Amino acid sequence: MQRILFLIILFFTPLVTVMASSPTRNSYDISGNWRFYHTEQLDNSKADYVALPHTWQAELGSYGKGSASANYIRTLQVPKEWMGKRLFLRFGGVQSVARIFVNGGYVGGHKGGFTAFNVEITDNVRFGAENHIRVIVSNAVRSDVLPVSTDMDLTAGIFRDVELVVVPRNMISMEYYGSEGVFVVQESVSKERVAGYVRSYISMQPHTHLDLAVRIVGPDGYEVLTHELRVGKLDEAGYVDVPFEIHDPYLWSPNDPAMYRVEVSLKGGGHSDMVAVQTGFRRVSIDDANDLCINGEAVALRGVNLPHDRMGYGMAIDDNFLGEDYALLRDMGATALRSLSGPHSSVLYDWCDRDGVLAWVDMPFTRSEAAFSDICYYPVEEFHQNGREQLMEIIAQNYNHPSVVMWGLYSLVWQQGDSVIDYVRELNELAHALDPTRLTAGCSNVDGDINFITDIAVLRQNVGWQKGMADDVAVWCRQLASKREWRTAHFSVCYGEEGATEHNAERIVRAQRGTHYLPSRRQTYMHERYHSIIDSMGNFCGVWLNNMFDYASSRRPYSLNRAGLVEYDHRTKKDAYYLYRAAWNDTIPTLHIADGEWTQRTDTLQNFMVFSSVGAPTLLVNGDSVTLHRTSKGIYKADSVVIRGRATVEAVDSTGRYRHSINIRCGNPM
Question: Among 60, 325, 506, 606, which is least packed by CB within 10 angstroms?
Fold first, then answer.
């Protein structure tokens, strides 16, 4: 009731009075009722009222234009009863540099747009009075904040929610890289036994003794462990480790995503604090056959790259939009997702934990493919340190998610100019030191030493786009298998190129550099050839598609990267989407004829491609049966079909229950 009352007041009035909280921590959503104005506006009395998440660059093509700095302000009435507690602002994400002031005093900042961060405001708050919060946001490109080169439009603003968190003086720390302060470390995982320790970062007053309790509850709701101890003076590290051992555990896997609840409570000095996290016990590895394994069992890694924005909203998407995106990914049959250039909201990984979907989370060390002169790496300490800090935040904030199996350290970085090799090695060592239970990965489109640093090299391939033919991917697969250095390496493949549903073409030809013509037929053809060839002969530790959705990229024609399987509206599915749903998802019936939007065709000799998960379909042209042949799972083709004039082309499954038809006209229009 208290939280509901607070939200009602917050919505209707610019001045918020918050009710006094209970003895433990309380969190209040303060994403509403902010005022916004650009820095160059001298008269802030005309500031607009906005609700978070918010960006001032949601309009397509606005990235890099207009103001690079803006202000968010709001007022907050803090109750006098909160004196003696500590107050924090928790930001889910600010793109990309934030400076926070309370009552005119600077309280902290953050560099990096994809990770959450906490700022303590206790010493600047006036209890029992009105308080003024100001967040100055800058989205200017800087050489000391990653990424310094990107294909994605990183739309500026406070693009995730903000919370006010009220905690006791003695608390489970909110000051460790924006994390929950509790980490369930898994040292040994088997069907018979799980062992490790729960690490809790503690912030406590001097000359204080506290009681720390750890409680673990199994997926069946039964308590499997409880441990209590007395905490006195902490060392400089500021944490307490409590060992645990669980016999006959429920192990987390894609087929059985069993989750445990771990509660850490702190009592003493008349106050208490408690943090609960969800986690799953599993072991991640790669076997000699180059398969990703969970608990020693190989899993089919069918992944897709997931960008961060949406038409009309930029990166300021809420959990409802993110849920729609996740549902489409699941509908297509993907078993894994990649968070491009940085983590998504943590709720996405909660869903992955629940459903057994695997996740690869990138750090923002990347380069834009569309800007070949871009510098993506600066060999200076400010750049190095920001990369380290962002990697540490990514790992700390997502550590307890069993679905996260890989940390991405770089993507398509340029191998000209200053070498990135030593820095990638440093990041790889740091990631393994912070988290030895997971794999590291890098997405590469070049040869050389960079491919042999991370645990997995994800090889970005695009033969047939601007060079060679799509079938050349078979030659590449054979060459990869024959090279001695790759025989003991672990590697995945990433592929996908651009296509627009409104662009049609009579002939499928290679794209030209800087092309504005992106027929969806070419995209579908490339995906069909890559999928068929790699499915039959590739020995890859997973397949990653580039991308799930089109995304804003002001450096490209139409201000979009159109490599998505779904258009930028996140609703219009391209033919390639149905290709993978037919091949990957055996639970949802798919029957789809490609090129349905290409209604007027010149040639009277036509080829057809049908995607089916309901068995071999029958293809009918104006009621006459046409022979289809299977090229790979879910894909069927009919070649050299003569059509003159108008035709209805229909695919029907053997039971007649599922069917899909298109209407076309072949030959010169009358």
Answer: 506
